[in-house]
Amino acid sequence: MSLLEHLEELRKRLVRACVAIAAGVAVSFLYIDRIVAFVFAPMRRALPPGAKMIYTAPGEAFGLYVNIALLAGTVLAAPFIMFQIWRFIAPALYAMITFFGTFHSADLEFRPRVEDAFDLYTRMLLGMVLVFQMPTVIYFLAKMRLVTARFLAVNTKYAILIIFIVAAVLTPDGSPWNQTLFAAPMIALYLLGIAIAWAVAPRSPAGAQ
Q: Which residues neighbour 39 within 8 Å (Cβ) at sequence distance 6 or greater?
């Protein structure tokens, strides 16, 4: 497929994944009180008897319910999302095997072992999961105020180093070219994560000191 066809295929898979998450969120809202109770059960057990948690901002509790429903919906939709990721990367896997097979000659014969082929599949699948989940992880960390856009931006060089280390582990042959192919989309999504962290960061009220 051409680049535009790949982008269209990616768009289609992302739309289906988003629809699945929306459906999961809708189902989660049907049981939101039970889910919230389950999430805070350990904290309630740690508090003194009769103690309660409070919220002071008008939209704080609603935002909490929305975030928990979004997280629960994502968990519910995870199998379908993984299926969409697999359907997107499977053609690339088959194309990669075909490419490796083009070096077959009178002196060289390509006979991949089942174990090696399966290892390639699992590495590619794990790599794609890491790539697509990075903005989601950054979103939740930023919402919980564990990271900020400034922190991510300052530590970009260390993130790139870690990304290339991960890419080296995931690539089947460890060549610099394949490492770069794995690392490039992860770096792009890390930079996207910085923008997401900035967008979801709490803002001070106008005129506040």
A: 68
Measure the CA–CA gap between 181 and 99, rounded to whole angstroms.
15
Task: Choose among 63, 81, 77: nearest CA to 25.
Answer: 77
DSSP the chain: --HHHHHHHHHHHHHHHHHHHHHHHHHHHHTHHHHHHHHHHHHHHHSPTT------STTHHHHHHHHHHHHHHHHHHHHHHHHHHHHHHHHHHHHHHHHHHTT--SS------HHHHHHHHHHHHHHHHHHHHHHHHHHHHHHTTS--HHHHHHTHHHHHHHHHHHHHHHSSS--HHHHHHHHHHHHHHHHHHHHHHHHHS--PPTT--
- pTM comes to 0.55
Q: Which tens digits make up the pLDDT trace of 63-116?
A: 889 888 988 888 888 888 878 877 777 776 676 777 777 777 778 787 777 777
The residue assigned the tokens 């039970």 is 34
